[in-house]
Amino acid sequence: MNKLFLSTFATAMLMASTALAQDTTISVAAFEGGYGRDMYTKVVAAFEAINPGIKVDLTISRTIGEELAPKVAAGDFPDVVMVGQGSRSGITENFIRGKMLEDVSDVLTMTVPGEAVTVGDKLTPGIIGSLATNPYGDDKTYLMPVYASPTGLVYDAGLFQTRNWTAPTDFDALFALAETAETDSIALFTYPTAGYLDSYFPSILAAVGGPDFYRRVASYERDIWLTPEARKALDLTSELLANVSPTTLGYANNQDFTRNQQSILDNTALFMPNGAWIVNEMKDGPRPDHFAWGFTPVPAIEPGGTRYVTTTVEAAWVPAGADQKDAARQFLAFLYSDVAAVIFAESNAIQPILGLADHLQGDAAIFYGAYGQPNVEAVVGGFAATNPVPGVDIRATLFDSANSIIDGSMSVDDWQASLNEASNRLSDQLAN
Fold first, then answer.
1. pLDDT per residue over 152-190, tens digit each?
2. Structural domains in the chain, sorted by start
């Protein structure tokens, strides 16, 4: 794929004379996740090469949200933040709830630096307009989508090949496989932490009621969690959690979560919710000779039914309090250049650019190839933004409660009731 875009890089360098000539420094704060650090430094270097008037002060950290919090409280804002919704710090959600984000809808009409096409024309259709990009449910984009990753169930395809197993496409087949694997002392399921169920729930909610049902859940329709569809999703999930690896709870924390991920490589658990970043994150994990990464959507409810791939879209955004908003927009636009896309793709961080996934090879192709499987559709995860509601965190109530279901301290009835209460309270405080 690099060869495909080499000419673009050369063109970009030739166009440097037309880049911004101002003497500007922008601060960019990025979360260091499973994709690593190198891609950020390389993209910044490429951006500076075609914009000699702009320097980038780059900060990369696994705890970037926590580090930014006191600075933001003191009125010291970065110009660009690359942290998606769902991070442990919750910084992006805090900016959404506080209506502290810059409207960057105009970036979609900007010409990509070094190219002759607009950002909007390069983006995959349907990627703009979800709650992941337009958090207030209107036509204004505040979060630019980056690293659109298919998430679902990761497994060892080599193990399946040696046992002549097939990845199940419906829940009956999934639970039948659990019985088969149990004879080999292999658990059906694990998760790194309960928060990783954000890779699972949008898919199963769409599976039980269709994508529109998921949107109703994500928009806090009153009493949505009392519907038969919602109960079906919780019952199936409870049965799935009953087949969890016995070591899951002990390692489901921010310090030990890779041990749960290692259980897939060790063949002590069959499936875990995760995304393409797992390949890089676990590149040094020991594994048997037969190991090969496998990826499959969350099963359908009935045989032959539609399966959904929860598409995790991370985000780049500009705080409303940023000092260098024009240069920040220029940086955002560059993220969708072919030059930047190649750099990101080298770390398996795939920009949502038309046709880019068609050129993937190796492990990345395994994950993105799921979109081409029979009866598979994409659903973008996320919840509608609300005004702050003290004591209510819908993500914690939905995802973290899985720990309590596993240890028996919460029943499915209690889970359903707490979800409905939290959702209804948020419904009254929609931030639009």
1. 999 999 999 999 999 999 999 999 999 999 999 999 999
2. 2-143+317-354 (3.40.190.10), 151-309+385-427 (3.40.190.10)
3-class state of residue 294 by DSSP: strand
Q: Which of helix, strand or coil describes residue 29?
A: strand
3-state secondary structure of 155: strand
With helix as H, strand as E and coil as C, how does 118-146 read? EHHHHECCCCCCCCCCCCCCCCCCCCEEE
Q: Which two tokens stand for residue 151?
A: 């998430």
From the CA atom positions of the chain, what is the Rg in Å? 22
Per the structure block, which two tokens stand in for 319?
């705080």
> Alpha-carbon distance 36 to 57, whole Å?
18
Q: How many residues does the chain have?
A: 432
Token look-up 């659109």 returns 148
Token reading at 409: 């301290």
**Residue 283 contacts residue 350 (beta carbons within 8 Å):** no
User: Which pLDDT score, from 0 to 100, does residue 59 have?
Assistant: 97
d(C-alpha 344, C-alpha 65), whole Å: 21
CA 298/CA 207 separation, integer angstroms = 9
Three-state secondary-structure class, residue 148? strand
Say if CB 203 and CB 286 are below 8 A apart: no
Residue carrying structure tokens 């955002």: 332
d(CA 48, CA 86): 30
CA angle 124, 128, 130 (to 5 degrees): 125
Average pLDDT over residues 312-336: 96
Q: Is the pLDDT of residue 71 over 50?
A: yes
338: tokens are 């072919």
